[in-house]
Fold these 2 entries.
Entry 1:
Amino acid sequence: MTFNVENIRKDFPILERKINGKSLIYFDNAATSQTPISVIESISDYYKKYNANIHRGVHSVSEEATEAYESSRKKIQKHFNANFSEEIILTSGTTHSINIIANGYTDLLTSDDEIIVSGMEHHSNIVPWQMMVEKNHAKLSVIPLKENGELDIDHFKSIISEKTKIVFLNHVSNALGIINPIEEIIEISHRNGAVVLIDGAQSSAHFTIDLQKLDVDYFTASAHKLCGPTGIGFLYGKKNLLEKLTPLMGGGEMISDVTFEKTTYAELPHKFEAGTPNISGAIAFGYALDYINKIGLDNIYNYENELLNYATQSLKKIEGLKIYGDTNNKTSVISFNIENLHPYDIGSILDKFGIAVRTGQHCAQPIMDHFLISGTVRVSLSFINTKKEIDKLIEAINIAKTMLS
Ligand code: PLP
């Protein structure tokens, strides 16, 4: 498909909205991406035509719902190139997925073991592990950031050892947009006998991910960053590893046999999918992947890169503006501050112009501490944005500067 942003924008009903009398300019795509009409309609279709619980009924409507739910699992498997569909666990999103893994390792690790996290993480890839080490007393070490915001890989090489059992980090930083060298980190970790969990919440929307080629052990993403609905995502894990983990939640659907004396668990993937799942969300996630594949991730990557360069160059012309994590290998996220101005004040004025940006710590306080700041303004671009919108942002920032100075 040839990439035509004006045609693509017609698929997103929210872009017709006015905010404070101005056309919505949505630059908060890293928090949640917007949803195309085909995905929205897939949810209403489910409730209109085949709303039923899955895996349980012998009746036709339940069978249709089960088939659609399972077909989404297969679409995710294919899109991310997992070996087996049972390696794809449908979860409520990245946070849920990471909690499943951290909980699963609680009983497998002891105080003799070590785990390594990057200093560039979203809180959802920090807190579940802290909760884990409180119980098993494994040692948690951190890969520090260099001055420019990139990970200090030499430091990582100096702390990893045969004691290290898990290394976990994001593929792309939500606060800075920096793409981490995960291929190298996976290779070094495996050489030392450690498994790797990659948080793909911010990478999966921007470029192709091949799980088998990466040889990553665990990977997770959220549909709402990928043109899908909220409350649904997936956890990938190599089959032999997932089989060893105790499930986070017990309940219906995840069992093989239940007596008051003992319960045995169901096979993968059901072992990790207790209770009635987000059926319509899972189905819509499949439609979101269809939509993204129709446009093509290579087209998306190239266009977003063009927007990123244009926005970065334009923002750099504003006096007193400083970009954090301004490196060469980035997705379309720009985090900045303007001398003597509070990010919250800038964000509030931009909203008056219908421009949605995020301000604050972006659930990544250690990154803000690294740069000795309390927060930033974050502009996160996607393939539905245009250069014209970036021009309007620059205009509005200049007005905000005059108003606040
Ligand atoms: N990890 C990263 C890098 C993120 O950007 C986010 C959300 O912003 C999350 C994890 C958490 O995702 P969710 O809230 O969908 O569980």
Entry 2:
Amino acid sequence: MRENLKYLLIILCLLYPMKEMAQVNRGELAPTPPMGFMTWNYFGVNIHEDDLRTLADALVESGLRDLGFNHIFIDDGWQGGRDSKNNMIADPKKFPSGMKALVDYVHSKGLKIGIYSDAATLTCAGYTASLGFEEQDAKTFAKWGFDYLKYDYCHAPADWQTAIARYEKMATALQNSGRNIVFGVCEWGDRQPWIWAKKAGGQLWRTTADVRDKWSCGVNVKNQSELHGKGAGIWDITNINADLHTFAGPNGWNDPDMLVVGLYGKKGAPSSDLGGTGCTDTEYQSQMSLWCLMAAPLMITCDVRNMNEATRRILSNKDIIDIDQDKLGKQAQRVVNESVWQIFVKPLSNGDVAIGILNLSDKEQTANVNVQDFGIVGKNKAKDLWSKKTFKLNSQGKIKVTVASHETKVYRLSK
Ligand code: GLA
């Protein structure tokens, strides 16, 4: 009998690590684009656990959690260096109760939580980063209970090989951490991560320089490297990210950076750098429309504890969020790319199609859009996902649209 017990114990011990490993299937960690609140654009490095708790509360109370915004993403500035055993510690002034207590609180609200580090010795804002400590830091993040890691690339060499190796190293460390941690690659599109980041173990990758709270830098920028230093607005980022539609799909998303919706040019915030003096509500609504059409991760950055009505309405449009979160996971294809009109088409899992029509000019414009020109046939119903009006398409598949300057109309077309 004792012999049997001994064997049973040995088998259990052998099986236990397999159970741990079975929890981690990195290839399936982000079937739809991640959503939540990210600290950077509003707080910069001035983050505090009290704010993070009240932000978590606000996500729940505003209904945003139940619409899918189910993460608090902590960005740069949380770090307090390393202890005598080289374990990363949180800044005790910003996190007096310790990171684990905050993570537990956020989890108790039915939310997940993300953390931030960098593939060098210092982060972009100059805090302790993870190079050389990947395994140890991944274990620390897992022990604290984090569900997501944004991994930046400041202070790291410019070449592709080093970047790929450093991202792979952290992805492997997360794999071995015993916890499912989604991995966000953040090297700003400089080394075309859409080609390699998924294979390296990432579930999303930034495609451009940091977004600023503005519509455009005023220059027709065609690729990411030209955007650095100019201040990337909503339109500049759209223009670059739109051409990458073939690279996005379930568990591997193009990340055009955070939503600036509702920031209104908040002074002193990173999003107000480089001419980020704010946008109109029409432009904020366009960002939400375009990000959802492009199947982008949706990271809110305005203060969700104090949203005005317009911001609440823009962020809480379930019909639009459904386009982003559609399980087919296709990023819209840009089918018209002209100086006034930009048109995007996104196929959806139930056979419906979303079409987005953006007016880039500085005046209201009217057009007759024939959806059959874009291969959309057999759809005779349309719903305007902002006004909620439904109407029938005529047999030629024409939609007459009047679109304000910088507005994006979005229609869901169905049988
Ligand atoms: C980089 C990233 C930003 C933010 C900051 C933090 O600029 O691209 O999104 O994380 O670093 O320092």
